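fwd from M.: "can u put these together and see what the complex looks like"

so here's what she sent:
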Amino acid sequence: MSRLPVPAALLAALLALPGTAFAYPDMIRHGYTGCAQCHTDPSGGGVLTAYGRAQTEVLLATPYGAPREPGKEAEFLFGALGLPGALALQGDVRSVFVPRPGALRYILMQADLRGAVSAGILRAGGSLGAVSEGAHMARVTTGDTWNAVSREHWLGIAPSDAWLVRAGRMNLPFGLRTEQHLLDPRVATRTDTNDDQQFGVAVAWEPGFLRAEVMGIAGNLQVSPDDFRERGAAGAAALPIGNDVEVGVAGLYATSHLDVETLQARTRQAYGLFGRAAAGPVAILGEGDLLLDRQASAATGATGFLQADWEAVQGVHVLGTGEWCDGDFGDSAGGVPTATLSVHWFAWYRADLRLDGMRGVLYCTPGADPQWMGLASFHLLL
Amino acid sequence: MNPARLVPLVALCLALPRESEAAWKVFGKSKVVFHADATPGALDIEGVTSDLALDDDGTRLLFTVRMDTVETGIALRDDHMRKNFVQTDVHPLLTLEMPRAALSLPAAGATQVTATVNGAFTVRGQAEEVPVTYTMTQEKAGWKIRASFPFDVTKHGIAIPSYLGVTVAPAMTAEVTFRAVDAQPQGTAP
């Protein structure tokens, strides 16, 4: 795997920060091994369902009194529009502050309006928004700084509760779907929810004893010319064990005539195991992926992460994360472990704050010197 | 044979002292888990309590759970279950009743038996006959018993629970784990 020099990698990482989707795999602590109750995307993320919006108040946010029924204010724009039941709308605004020597850099990571339709067996979903920088692979405009982005837009049919067939631009089913899109496995496999979506056809199946989704990849049609577009397939299947453990497998094959990073013909493969478990207020998330990369020469590598998420009191999470990535075992640059300590507070059911302090490297840059880094991010849900 | 001649024989058999005839009481910590599946997706909701009482009058076993003690892990969901569906203010208890004589005990020389017995499962005052499959294991002091049975909430006058698009299947299961020991005969010192 090619590697960027450290400053370039850090800059690339910061530019890549914008925009993620809701996807909190630590919800397994509440017995949610599946995703479809709260998300229109069967593998997590995307527009929240009505049930999911209610859970932001019931389960995610710090309560300030006795449990109460989420009211009309749980709906989009606090219920001001009175949307029909078949239509879900959602606004997400995410910002990040990056401390730098003598300055505090601000990035608007996400300002998306998302929508989903569920009428009979018909399903649809999409998003349109703006970012101040980054999210290159989701852009629909070509400005130097501010750009419009559309991360998802798809149509589908759900012949039953267990099946969903979709076509369009969608998140790739691979590994643990999480809003932490800079995790090494998400970066190394290009399967984040920020801008790594691809066009294709996806089939999701959740019969009760497992959840699975496979997707035929037709490429990112928001990138041109066609030589840059990857073709292939991705899939993931996860098996719940009881209510508090889930284990899964994932695979990815993608090939292009010109890779968007290396400008070489490239075939990427990734095969991984992932899992989630909960014990009281602690959720453990982990993933390990084998990386097979063929460009001018072949490379074999691996990446993974392990995270402990302790919900000290409802809505306040203390997270410890270790991650590692080495795209090529055959070269002299070894993978550099990155350790992150985070505090994530869902202060209100419409807003959450997160602080991350880390030491290591970003963006799967083996051989780079580890550095101290910090981020403060803020999310507003409308 | 004149069937009337069998009556004293049956009465004699019933009067024979057997180990199982000593009244049982629940001993130690019990666990009762109600499982419900919900769609879309796979959501297994568990309602858990350690509140289990057993009344053994020598002819029937009556297990009782106070529904207000059942917790699903989400306070609002507990509230819905108690107020909207089980209506625990009016129907605070659920019971499982089964004839004592129908229970199978381990054969001579064995320490464990697995069997199925029909019981009357009552929720909200409405009874449903359920097949209770149980495993009894003899321990130093009494028995360890694991039992489970399916039930259908619609047979107890409970509407199919549905909340913001997530619908719970009416077919549920109950799992019970407890230890039972012989109760001290009344009037004897412990």
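replying to her w this: The interface with chain B takes residues 30-37, 42, 49-51, 54, 58-59, 67-69, 161, 206-211, 240, 242-243 of chain A (CB under 8 Å).
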